[in-house]
Design brief:
By secondary structure, the chain is an alpha+beta fold. It has two helices and four strands; from the N terminus they run E-E-E-E-H-H. The protein has a two-stranded antiparallel sheet with strand order 1-2. Strands 3-4 form a two-stranded antiparallel sheet. The protein starts with a strand and ends with a helix.
Length: 56
């Protein structure tokens, strides 16, 4: 299973979505909140609910 590119949680099969950039880079997201925060260039380390902030 893939992990969310923003929050680090597992994306269960059949849920979430993937975002493919023009250069071929693939990003997986488990919910729209993660995707919108990614598009707004938010840093996942600043949010307590992400794995990146828990690893600091």
């Amino acid at each position: 299973m893939a992990k969310c590119s923003f929050c680090g949680r597992e994306v269960k099969q059949g849920t979430g979505f993937m975002y493919v950039k023009v250069d071929g880079t693939v990003y997986y997201f488990d919910k729209r909140k993660c995707f919108s925060y990614y598009l707004m260039n938010r840093d996942p380390r600043n949010f307590k609910w992400t794995e990146a902030s828990k690893n600091q």
